Amino acid sequence: xxxxxxxxxxxxxxxxxxxxxxxxxxxxxxxxxxxxxxxxxxxxxxxxxxxxxxxxxxxxxxxxxxxxxxxxxxxxxxxxxxxxxxxxxxxxxxxxxxxxxxxxxxxxxxxxxxxxxxxxxx
Length: 122
What we know:
about 120 residues, mainly beta, about 10% helix
């Protein structure tokens, strides 16, 4: 296959990649904008806490955890499973904590895990 990089065998097997999401700590207050303050003043809605979830992207696939309502230190203990050929052509995993919102979800933080740093050669 001409599309495979050098060193990747043409016969690859399917594999499952398990990503375990445990918890997050010290998430920031999110709704501190002017519009949030106006909503607090007009209708008394006070929603400074975040509704976090984790979204993981790997090899063109996405998975996510459940949403933990109103939490600065959410606890998930969930796993996300991806099925992909091994060795994967993707070199990193994108992990993003997001705040669930009725209008638009907001990214709180993003981290990339380099697969070469957590795997063995061969």
